[in-house]
Amino acid sequence: MCYDNDAAPPRLQPPITGTRAADVRLTSSDGTGFTAYEARPDDVRGSGVVIVPDVRGLHGFYRQLAVRLAEQGHPAIAIDYYGRTAPGDDRGESFPVMELGTPILGLFGGADQGIPADQVTEFDAALTAAGVEHEIVTYPGAPHGFFDAGYAGHAAACADAWNRVLAFLASR
């Protein structure tokens, strides 16, 4: 999802554990370095999460999201995927998304003009065809980036999305 610079992820539950968070520098197998932000819970209570930010990289929203997840017991790392500049780094249709081998939770705004309903339907069908365990949820009337505590008009969708994320992680 894309967000305004002052956006913040929801904080619907109080933290259940302390956290430690910091920027880290990672190196890919081909030697290309890229930035990430890691948040570790003091008490791990669930699955780890990899956050792939939008093309703007690791702005505050994604750092805060990693911390919110860690506060609920899930180790989280946001990687600046689009900041990686290795030659031949193909992010087009041939990008091996279906080879992830992990369950996927997709949360979409029904009024998102950047990700039309037919693309969500195609994504859902491709995941099904590839045998990838997944859940796709579309929130009618919600815009792109609705998962933002500042969108009072979409607070119910934001809260439902957050609860689905936590339930999804708890089931792993």
TrEMBL record:
Pfam families: DLH. Gene3D superfamilies: alpha/beta hydrolase (3.40.50.1820). The keyword Signal does not apply. One of its GO terms (molecular function) is hydrolase activity. Keywords: Hydrolase. Residues 34-98, 99-170 form the Dienelactone hydrolase domain. The keyword Hydrolase applies. It comes from the Bacteria. PANTHER family: ALPHA_BETA-HYDROLASES SUPERFAMILY PROTEIN (PTHR46623:SF6), CARBOXYMETHYLENEBUTENOLIDASE-RELATED (PTHR46623). This is Dienelactone hydrolase family protein.
